[in-house]
Amino acid sequence: MNYSSGLVLIETPGNKSSLVFVSTVGVVSQAVLDIVLLVNLDVLGELLGLAGIAANVIVIRVFVLEGFKDGVNISLVSLALSDLGALITLQLYNVMVNPWLAEADLPFLPLEVQSLYAFYPHNYFSRVRGFVTAFVTLERCLCVAWPLKVKQVLTNRVSIACNASIYLIMVLNVSPNYIMTYCEWKFVKSRNRTLYGILYRPNKDLVFSYTYFVTDFFIPFFAFFIVLFCTIVIVITLRSKALWRKSFSTAGEATGKGIPGKERKVMLMISAVSVIFIVCFIPFCAILTARALVPGMGINGTYWNLVLLVGSVAFFMETVNCSISIVVYFKMSSKFRARILEMFTWVFGSLDEKC
Fold it and tell me: From residue 153, how far is each of 37, 94, 116, 329 by CA, in Å?
């Protein structure tokens, strides 16, 4: 094992906390961790995140122009809004956890302040994204099982209500964090000055011990397994329907009982989005599982630097997940592709006229 140093929150009398530099034991050195954090978060994450923000603004614009006659457009706009929120807050988080910023002479403690202003809001949008993905995947899965009944039940109003409910309910996911923590000016002995940082209310450990399992373990895994199960059902059903149509077409008989071409394209597109979500969520699954099973993966534990390293990879994968949807829509939806080309043709045409 390598010996390294790191910034750690230490509780002080009066229920206050301060960042101090202490020596810790870990399997990843601080030098290696700093390099990985800079590359994954502050270089690759920032560049891709900025592109993803622009991409999601375009996605929202396109679906709004297409209208909401098809209920799936409502969920895709909701998904793009959660992606946009997750990327904006993640951009701020990436800047605040920069190792160089922590050493700068600032009037606040970046590693503390980022919790309330970046990390917790990002968690909110990330959980919303997970459940919106689960909802739209479940909706397509039900369309496969009961196509006629589902269309009568899952109307546009129901889709709006379900998506709005996800945004409202997920507020409860971050409420304990904001109830038990707050930011205020405090005296930091290690800096010998008053800085703006985080403070905790009494009994925070008791509250967090109960909420951790629900907010940081059960909720993300629940959404993940819904997406995984429904995606498997959709893929298997599409494959079986394709084989069924092929067998009837070979026999020269009608194939009208199969899934309509438009519906099949939508299911394939949603399946692609869901598969990307599943793949990109795997690093977070590894962290959540490991922290629940291995004591040394807690804050300042033996493997804490390893958790931070894998966490930077997980955040980068989440940035990919929130940014790549526009590519899937462009490749798999002819309407979306036509609308995008129309928008850019209009923009470049206007520029040519001005020139």
Answer: 47, 42, 39, 26
In terms of phi and psi (left: phi > 0; alpha: psi -120 to 50; beta: otherwise), the region of 192 is left
The CA distance from 349 to 355, in Å, is 10
Cα separation, 118 vs 128, whole angstroms: 15
Per the listing, tokens 């899952």 go with: 154
How far the first Cα of the chain sits from its last, in Å, is 63
Measured from the Cβ of residue 198, the count of other Cβ atoms closer than 10 Å reads 22
**What number is the average pLDDT over the span 107-134?**
91
Cα–Cα dist 280/282, whole Å: 6
pLDDT at 16 over 60: no
Per-residue CA distances from 302 to 10, 265, 307 (Å)? 17, 49, 10
In sequence order, the β-bridge partners of residue 8 are 20
11 burial level (CB within 10 Å; 0-12, 13-18, 19+): exposed
Query: CA triplet 140, 65, 234: central angle to 5 degrees?
Result: 10
Quick check: 342 and 66 in contact, CB under 8 A? no
Measure Cα distances from 74 to 77, 87, 122, 233 in Å.
Answer: 5, 20, 22, 23
And the tokens for 290? 């490991």
pLDDT in tens, 225-262: 999 999 998 888 877 776 666 665 555 444 444 556 66
The pLDDT mean for the chain works out to: 81
Does the pTM exceed 0.85?
A: no
Q: What are the pLDDT digits (tens) for 154-169? A: 888 889 999 999 999 9
DSSP state of 28: S
- Beta carbons within 8 Å of 315's beta carbon, 6+ residues apart: 40, 41, 45, 90, 93, 94
Nearest to 195 by CA among 7, 8, 17, 13: 17
